[in-house]
Specification:
With 105 residues, the protein is α+β, with helices and mostly antiparallel strands. The protein is built from 2 helices and 5 strands.
């Protein structure tokens, strides 16, 4: 099972969903469920994980896009393998770096 590492931007989003000025409990529940699935199996069918074309600021490593939910207000989790910038799993314990959690552009 991969271990999840969060960038400051992703951690900030989670914190805002939990106890921001306007906490969003239902979205937080969907994000946590998606993160649990991601940690258990990045290829879980419910995540619909696929390579993402270009994520500004992350051009050196392959970025993946996983679904949190669908519809007009869809959210996604953008992540990469390994500690930020490595691009592939390394060592005995896989690490996934969650880069951004937020609305689908």
């Amino acid at each position: 099972m991969p271990k999840l590492h969060f960038t400051p931007a992703a951690a900030r989003t989670l914190k805002c969903l939990e106890r921001g000025r306007r906490p969003d409990r239902s979205r937080l529940q969907r994000v946590r469920r998606a993160l649990d699935r991601l940690a258990a199996d990045p290829r879980h069918p419910g995540l619909r994980t696929h390579p993402y074309r270009v994520l500004p600021g992350h051009t050196t490593s392959k970025v993946w896009d996983s679904y949190v939910d669908q519809g007009p207000n869809a959210w996604r989790i953008y992540w990469t393998y390994g500690p930020a910038g490595t691009g592939s799993p390394s060592g005995s314990e896989a690490v996934l770096t969650v880069l951004v959690i937020g609305p689908h552009p």
